[in-house]
Amino acid sequence: MAGFEPRIVAFACNWCSYAGADLAGVSRLQYPPNIRTIRVMCSGRVTPGMILRAFAGGADGVYVSGCHIGDCHYGFGNRRAEEQIAEARKLIEMLGLESERLHLEWVSAAEGEKFATSVRDFVERVKKIGRSPIREKS
Prior knowledge:
Elements: E1 8-13, H1 17-26, E2 35-40, H2 48-56, E3 61-66, H3 77-94, E4 102-106, H4 112-129, H5 133-137
Helix pairs in contact: 1-4, 2-3
């Protein structure tokens, strides 16, 4: 698949991960431009339905990031995110998609480098997997 650039939808927690993504940008850290970031108030609010909708809309991968365990602004949101991601993985596998197309990462507001690195790694992983079969139909 020469020239394949995956479409990545990223859900980032308002309090930590979105700020980490912003820090990466302000610090001029390089990461692929094919990621579209959606700010959510908490990673625990990202439902399996939202993830499936991203795939149905043509995403080749979905990246979810939130506060580190124990640092959630709402107390338990990141633990809820782990549960939601586990459920979403089961659903996307039932749809015939690889579970590696979904990634959960903990990124604090001070970890711009970690955000950029994890996004680069995820984009490369999705490139190796290839285009989503759902995307090909849409």
